[in-house]
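User: Can you write out an input/output pair for a complex, sequences first and structure second?

Assistant: Here is one pair. Inputs:
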Amino acid sequence: MTTSTRGAGKAPAVLVLEDGRSFRGRAYGALGETFGEAVFSTGMTGYQETLTDPSYHRQVVVMTAPHVGNTGVNDEDRESDRIWVSGYVVRDPARTPSSWRATRSLDEELCAQGVVGISGVDTRALTRHLRERGAMRVGIFSGPAVADVELLLARVREEPAMSGRALADEVATTEAYTVPAQGTKRFTVAAVDLGIKGMTPQRMAERGIEVHVLPADASLEEVYAVDPDGVFFSNGPGDPSATDHPVELMRGVLERGTPLFGICLGNQMLGRALGFGTFKLKYGHRGINQPVQDRATGKVEVTAHNHGFAVDAPLGAPSDTPYGRAEVSHVCLNDDVVEGLRLLDRPAFSVQYHPEAAAGPHDAAYLFDRFVSLMEGQRA
Amino acid sequence: MPKRTDIQSVLVIGSGPIVIGQAAEFDYSGTQACRVLKAEGLRVVLVNSNPATIMTDPEIADATYVEPITPEFVERIIAKERPDALLPTLGGQTALNAAISLHDAGTLAEYGVELIGANVAAINKGEDRDQFKEVVAAVADRIGHGESARSYICHSMDDVLKGVEELGGYPVVVRPSFTMGGAGSGFAHDEEELRRIAGQGLTLSPTTEVLLEESILGWKEYELELMRDRNDNVVVVCSIENFDPMGVHTGDSITVAPAMTLTDREYQVLRDIGIEVIREVGVDTGGCNIQFAVNPADGRVVVIEMNPRVSRSSALASKATGFPIAKIAAKLAVGYTLDEIPNDITGETPASFEPTLDYVVVKAPRFAFEKFPAADSTLTTTMKSVGEAMAIGRNFPEALNKALRSLEKRGSQFDFTAGGKSDPALAAELLEEARRPTDGRVQAVMGAIRAGATPEQIFEATHIDPWFTDQMFLIKEIADELAAAPELQPALLAEAKRYGFSDAQIGQIRLLREDVVREVRHALGVRPVYKTVDTCAAEFAARTPYFYSSYDEETEVAPREKPAVIILGSGPNRIGQGIEFDYSCVHASFALHEAGYETVMVNCNPETVSTDYDTSDRLYFEPLTLEDVLEIVHAEQQAGPVAGVVVQLGGQTPLGLAQGLKDNGVPIVGTSPEAIELAEERGAFGRVLADAGLPAPKYGTAFSFEEAKRIAAQITYPVMVRPSYVLGGRGMEIVYDENALAEYLERHAGLIEQHPVLIDRFLDDAIEIDVDALYDGHELYLGGVMEHIEEAGIHSGDSACALPPITLGGYDIKRLRTSTEGIAAGVGVRGLINIQFALSGDILYVLEANPRASRTVPFTSKATAVPLAKAAARISLGATIAELRAEGLLPESGDGGDLPMDAPISVKEAVLPWNRFRDVHGHGVDTVLGPEMRSTGEVMGIDAVFGTAYAKSQAAAYGALPHKGRAFVSVANRDKRALIFPARELVAMGFELLATSGTAEVLRRNGIETTVVRKHGQGEGPQGEKTIVQLIHDGDVDLIVNTPYGTGGRLDGYDIRTAAVARAVPCLTTVQALAAAVQGIEALTRGEVGVRSLQEHAEQLTSARAL
């Protein structure tokens, strides 16, 4: 009864969760079928950034905000050169975009990039389901792909789960490239691309950093070949416990004592390099309103999150690691999840959330300054 | 950072009477704040002159002063209570201005009172336009974003004229500094408009300052609500986008939360600016709102203004998100930080986050132009709406349709019955109509769309964002499909509901009765589900059942065990139905919760305490229509037992639903719908009176002019005419002859189509009396007897009154009691009843009876220290007065009719919105009182004797009565006799009397020295003698007494009264008010006026009763 008939001509679609619950709606974007891990994102703005964030690779994103597509799509706000989500679930897609920067509608963009979506479903019911049962495999079937739900369910269950999957290689650049510093160049940073968002090198470049973005499988030699003042490990998709190469690479950087900064998957890599474990959160943090406390200052920053896994590190006293003492620098006030790590005896730190924002608040932009300070300290 | 330990007591200042621009939202915020502070163990001292508020309930604060919010009275309270701190940010502009005055006068320093929540420097930076521009410039320097509209500050008319040149010509915006609700601001398109608007603005501004600004008409308008704590944590609670672009005051705009048409980049720019502005202004703890304009062509952002305090928008944002801004502001003020305060809704997460919405909120303003036919209905930067409705839906069309039907006003919903075919001429006409923003613009836009206007044309005419326009097209397309479908298919019906169409709308389109549509819908299983407002888009489980309906898949209403009572609220505030009714509903909720029921509140007014998520056990933020209420009843019946629905406390809105609910099998508790009908239907009520042996003025009901003429002649003129079934005296007038009657019927043809006209004998010179009483079927509890100051014929809502009555004796009270009991029993009341009597020539006439909570219930309750609404709620559910006496809810013995001889006198005064309205030529609207209610709010003055209590009520409502100076008197012939004694008193007290020749003659013959002044019509004299109007404008008159000659039309006194309003000179328009004022002035001159808290007042009454 909740099926929307708006957007005449739109074919029926069905969303099937691995636990058997299904939602009917209308096709959105490309027709066909798609699979992935169902996750929900609570941001009310920034769908274009979300769609193009490589960390969403192999995930079907449910938007809790009902109206999606209102500002269309432009050529400036994307975080990579393609849409990465494997499927998209919205309630009320816009028919007419309205923005002085829009060049096309979101529907057109999804079709052009072959992204299968579904609209007109009770996204809140779906979100509550995922909150209670946890993120899980899902399939979206539209148009000719719609079939008996039992058959579709079997297909969903054949798909691999997110746990245990290393995905960074699938999204990272294969060729190294350089983002030039804006203004006077002050530092060189080697950024290991595990699924890097465009805004991250941008934020560094604004601070006079020349960023050499390297493929995920870059070797230690390749990293040091750019003569970096600092090394950066980006965000990215997949299960950190199955993502091994960056951990090894990071250990090499830590050994040398080069200033190191990690974001998201980069934080989990640092956690592993220090000997901490990682674990899958029930339904993850995906949104742009998450309160994170800097444990040194007590200040709270409102931050952008996109992570389904977290580092398992003690919140209390600093831990001893092969690289000296390490502490949890940031914590999410909603659920006490580790949101940042810091080495006390070496110039290395990382955060689980997204100081580059895009989408999201700019409260944590100071972390890029902190990285700059580390590099300045190392020079002095 | 935990709570500060150096503050033990806090003075909270409320916002005073409800006026346009400052309404019930400050009762909501003030109540939250007082509760929080009290729970923190602080002694809370409160001052607020408005008795119709929950915050002035004696249990909300430790010491509650219903006294004028003037520096003099607040200083007396400070001297008596010696609070450690003053929290001025929760009582609107009134509280902020009072705090600044106390600071400037050195009072705060003298008594060692610390201002918390905002410091003076921050208040000035936020409110002073010049300083705020510097703030914005500093922010732009720091982050590279944000600018002010180019502007020019003026302190004189010369400055103003120069400013226009500097800005490059007209149009310009004129904004006076330090006024609330944008009072006095507007667009000037030429010099004449400029002189008028800026002239008034210079007068209105306490700092004689206005700002001229470049026009940014038509830009997109946004608002952010921010909070900051003393650890410099800042969160944006809510973003709001205005459907109506720049040019319409945000209070008069349809607004939407969250913002709908910004990309993240653009939104984050606003957020960054907002955070830097709150820092730069220096709001250390608490909330503020910041308004932005965004150029739709290129995204240029102009920061318009900020309010360094809790505001109407923050109340809206609180209701829209579930994030209680005022409550948290109060906690921050006493030292907590955001991360230390839990989010009540989730219980697990902290308040240091930003709410995210998985629904759309639409607020629609409610106007009262029908009350001020002369007023210009063009919407400008001066707020004109008197109330608002908010609706929540899972998409914008659903929320918009719900909001429009929540307004409960004919014509407010989209009408799809007529037209709908392409009609270029009509489209052009409607586009032209929509070009001028008015209260009907959204309907005009829909009409234009239906007549074939294109999105481009709509944008050109209105600058409404194309996304919103497209959503209107979407609504229109569904209406077309509904109309075209051969039959009402389930999928199409579900689709229409999903976009917010009501059963009634669908019925109109399909030519079906509303109940038939409902039957079909229920048969097809198309019913709404209820979703939760949870601050977090379902990321965390919510503890608070704060619901809204949607045609979606999954409902979140949990089963319950205890029997529920559903309380229907009063909807948007309007003239005649305001905060007083919310007060009664909230009391019912408290009392019934205490009595073991689960209370379920239904309301759609975001300004109120009733729509706070922790007032009732469950809250449904829904329109108050039969359809919406029936669905809620159904949902609650699915959840558990429902004891019944309370309809008699929320005013006419729920009362109007009673019969429909009952017809659908819903149990109504308290007075039955049949009894309500008995009181409302004149014929039936006449029989009740006859059975009880009570006289009523002669009356008749007419369905045609012929009939009306015959009845009026029978009754004899003057007669009072009005349409039946109205509240607040809508359309009510006193008619003196047949021509006037014919003219009246012509003017009100629209109303009369619906309902017959009631014609009553008009009782000249009668004393009007209001009675509030409780009846349980056996026993009567006389709640209170109020004697009106103004004579019968002035709407009771606009009349001042005194309790206990000042001139009635024991015999009169006895008669009132007997009559009230007779009527209550005859009608079959179970709960509250309000009866209006008129005492004329020793005959006690019954004017009307309303078997429901009246607007005087809060006043009566406070004056007599008895919670009448709580008692009424209990009686509705079967308790008897005897039981309630035994329980202690009502006094053990006696009632409000037999107050002790030394009981203090409480005076209620009405507050009228004259200064808000102008006609199309920019002239003020006339200020004469009549049978149609026009006041927006009320104040209360309490003191030992009538004179002082009256003086306090005047000080609270309009500013203090003068002690001395020049009084101008000009009265109608019939008032001349009554003028002589009070005029003599004025002279004795040292006033110089001015009068026009006619009145002066009478006074001089009676030996009262009087100076003759020129009438307005006479113009300036040969020696440059000023007319009275010039004298008023020049500030040479301190008190004005001007009673109107006859009624209707523009009369001689018009210019005098409008000048008085413009210059804020006390202006009395009845001789009765003059007599009261003379007593008040006398009391003021006699000496010290004290202050006394309601708690002390109650103690005195209780101990006197015990004797």
